[in-house]
Design a protein that fits this description.
Elements lengths: L13 H6 L10 E7 L6 E3 L7 E3 L4 H10 L4 E6 L17 H12 L4 E6 L13 E4 L2 E4 L1 H18 L3 E4 L6 H11 L6 E8 L6 H6 L20 H13 L3 E5 L5 H10 L4 E5 L1 H12 L5 H15 L3 E4 L2 H12 L1
The structure holds ligand PBG.
Length: 330
Amino acid sequence: MFPHSRPRRLRLHSNLRRMVQETRLSINDLIYPLFITPGKQVKKAIASLPGQYHWSVDRLEAEIHEVVRLGIPAVLLFGLTTEKDPHGSSSYADKGCVQQAIRKIKAMAPNLMVITDLCLCSYTEHGHCGSLHQAGQITTVDNDATLKTLAKIAVSHAKAGADLVAPSGMIDGMIGAMRTALDHAGFEHTGIFSYSVKYASSFYGPFREAADCTPQAGDRKSYQMDPANAREALREAELDVAEGADMLMVKPALAYLDIIQSLKQNFDLPVAAYNVSGEYAMVKAAAEKGWINEQAVVMESLLAMKRAGADLIITYWAKDAARWLTELSL
Ligand code: PBG
């Protein structure tokens, strides 16, 4: 009790604070997303995500060298296409830009882990995360038809050399379908990084511009989760674990720290947090106005995700955070 106990004693010196820190952020925690586009000589700024670009495969080299130089262990690839159709069939083209990017990156930097986002919304002309059908009055993603497409994309990415495939469509049975397809095709070493708990969130706005994947009609509420639900998150994660997922993800991050914590407490697989586009854009906009200190707010936010239980963080700030962490440790 006070006055014997004074928690402030341990806060007096900076080195003492450093010694008693419970949570630490490390470059090892970071995963950097990259947007790959068809075409040649493209490095096009994404207006809604300042500092992020659309890259054509032939322009990737310097960016990959930089990621490796900074010590970031993994990239997460998103693909765009010029050939959209109702089923998103360009997603599994062997010569698709993501497949080419995987080959290029693995040839350049074999140790850099290449994770691929596996979703159809950038490849379908309607912008939903799979083929559509009518369920009574409602037009929604045809779950079981979409599983077949996801299995094909997984195999095409694995064939190109992806280390982990990350299905983000919240399709029931996606992990099992992909695991079976990968194993049948001889890719038993390719991991599955599941977007297990993905909410139907308004924080994805800037990304939809970046990935050209805004639904042309309706929303994603008939497949992504209701932000009101926490117990359902455990059910989703449990199914993914049973179907063979290697890692779990919660998305978005900051408004869902309770979900990160609960996954960490309930499962023994690595848990990742996706620090999404809306979280990035808000900080960028406020920093541009001079209302907040970007570096301080970002490092505090990333640390909070780790404190909640995230083992890994997917963030558009990965390169900046790696630089800041290096500077802080000097
Ligand atoms: C594709 C996908 C989305 C994001 C990642 N994969 C958008 C969505 O579900 O609408 C969002 C990423 C971000 O906002 O940074 N399904």
